[in-house]
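Section 5.1 Outputs to date
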Amino acid sequence: MNSMTNNVGHQLEVADAQAAPSFVVQRSTRSSIVGLLLMTIALTILLSAPAWAERATLRVIVEFTCYLALAQMWNLLAGYAGLVSVGQQAFVGLGGYLLFILATKFGLHPMAAVVMAGVVVGILAIPTALIVFRLAGAYFAIGTWVVAEAFRLGIAQSAALGGGSGQSLPVAVVKQLGPHREAIIYYAGVSLLVAAVLGSFLFLRSRQGLALTAVRDSVTAAGSLGVNTYRIKLMIYVATAAFTALIGALLFLQKLRISPDAAFSLQDWTAVVIFIVIIGGIGTLEGPIIGTLLYFALRGALAEYGTLYMILLGAVAVGIMLWAPKGIWGTVQEKLGWQLLPMRRRLIIH
């Protein structure tokens, strides 16, 4: 009797195993493999550039890496956390000025001052967030701009920081970088770019990243599922502020001169970044890459038109938004399903 029962039980288990569908978790796609290959080739070219590129070319590449890193930070903030800030120039400017203060007043090595500037601005971003987070929507956007203007006006009134005319980095500080200053700044820019893209990718694939994506899709639904929406938004705001300050410090280390208008420029550090993210595809990691490439191509082609340059850029932006409301990469992703940096794992049931 027992053997018959065991036999029947075994047959039921076999039947259940045959009936239960098998599945595979797909972590990559054909398009993502192609994307990884392309990015590997691009990174190899970037790393080898000091061996064959001219100094002017290296400076343009550093500017490109900084703009792309800034775009990734703003994309995390607005595209995923839903915090549409038009005051990110505050952190670029603070990072630049802290570089000058730490290097000239406290004697820190310039590269150490770049890192420390990011840390200090990250700390300063916490009380700033507690103020602007009391606002929402358009009021939040305006509030971030007001904060940036307050920082600009405050620094412009400081005679110790050069006032409205700004100041230059002393020669003694520049000499601390040695004869390979251009190469050091170049590789620092490439490192920031890799950290911005790879860090965003790994974070968005993590548990916290999943929570942030849920916040992007619906704040109410994310909250109902147990996501602490305030805490994760605060975390993203502080992290992007610190990283933006790192980029600002590196930019002005390359420029060797800083002034309030240049450091806290709405057009250079926020308007252009928003342009890049919107035309590339907000809420995607590939969008800022496409947008930055397109922006630099347009800048090179339209720069000869002088004052019409920004008008032409605006016309291009409006045209792209009418043709592709989700941005270039968002439209490509929607129609072709391509994902160079896939955020989601796919469950394939056989």
